User: Which sequence fits this backbone?
């Protein structure tokens, strides 16, 4: 059993040492890939320099436990659940992002799913990492499923208000997400404003596909960058080449700050 809190300590150390952390999101969807594929993706991602594997998605079903077990066999970096619902929990993970979708219209996604999940988390002995989850326009499937009042892209001060509220409520990190596969990632001025005013790590994801984009997001102030779609599309073909370029670009951008 991992010591409670130790996964987050590991991540904070990566941010301190490298300036920025990279997480690979794997959607354990049996239509997209088998548990074995998930393990392979994770293995290449770790080799390319990714600092954590997240497992989850808005529509994941069926093979979460199997995928997590396979991923755990392949990597040493933390494996953290990113549940789209109560059904997204698995015993064999190291930790779980315990998220509240603060800009949802539906209390289910703010506190009700969490209340049911908390009992399972206790029973499974999972290490929870609390996360203020905020969905920015266009929001993708997560925005639709989570009934989010999408944060407007041209009003960074609204994103800042929600982010500060999340920090003041005691969340360990704030995640601004544009939605998986988003055509436009979270705007850089929004990342700059929020990262300059909050004191907890800022996580950014959704629609970040190229090394240049990831570098710009890191330079704007992201502490953790999440990528899913582009890795799932490229990693088995190029064995992690593009991912390794992306991670280098992020780390270089932080060094120049
Ligand atoms: C996870 O939305 C991110 O929350 C992942 O986005 O699939 O666009 O990388 P991508």
Assistant:
């Amino acid at each position: 059993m991992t010591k409670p809190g130790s996964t987050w300590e590991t991540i904070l150390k990566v941010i301190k040492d490298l300036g920025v952390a990279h997480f690979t999101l794997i959607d354990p969807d049996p239509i997209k890939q088998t548990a074995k594929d998930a393990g392979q993706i994770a293995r290449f991602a770790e080799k390319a320099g990714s600092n954590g594997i997240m497992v989850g998605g808005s529509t994941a079903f069926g093979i979460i436990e199997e995928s997590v077990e396979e991923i755990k066999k392949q990597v040493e970096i933390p494996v953290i659940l990113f549940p789209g619902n109560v059904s997204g929990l698995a015993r064999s993970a190291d930790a779980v992002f315990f998220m509240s979708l603060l800009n949802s219209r539906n209390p289910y996604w703010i506190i009700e799913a969490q209340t049911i999940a908390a009992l399972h988390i206790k029973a499974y002995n999972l290490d929870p990492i609390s996360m203020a989850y905020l969905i920015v326009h266009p929001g993708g499937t997560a925005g639709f499923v989570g009934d989010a009042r999408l944060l407007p892209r041209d009003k960074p001060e609204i994103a800042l208000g929600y982010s500060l509220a999340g920090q003041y409520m005691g969340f360990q990190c704030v995640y601004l997400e544009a939605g998986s596969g988003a055509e436009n990632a979270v705007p850089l001025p929004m990342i700059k404003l929020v990262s300059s005013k909050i004191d907890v790590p800022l996580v950014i994801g959704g629609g970040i596909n190229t090394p240049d984009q990831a570098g710009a997001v890191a330079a704007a102030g992201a502490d953790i960058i999440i990528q899913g779609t582009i890795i799932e599309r490229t990693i088995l073909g190029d064995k992690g080449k593009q991912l390794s370029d992306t991670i280098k670009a992020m780390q270089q951008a932080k060094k120049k700050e």
Summary: The beta strands are 21-26, 52-55, 79-81, 95-101, 127-135, 173-177, 202-205, 224-227. Residues 25, 177, 179-182, 205-208, 226-230 surround SN-glycerol-1-phosphate (CB under 6 Å). The mean pLDDT is 95.
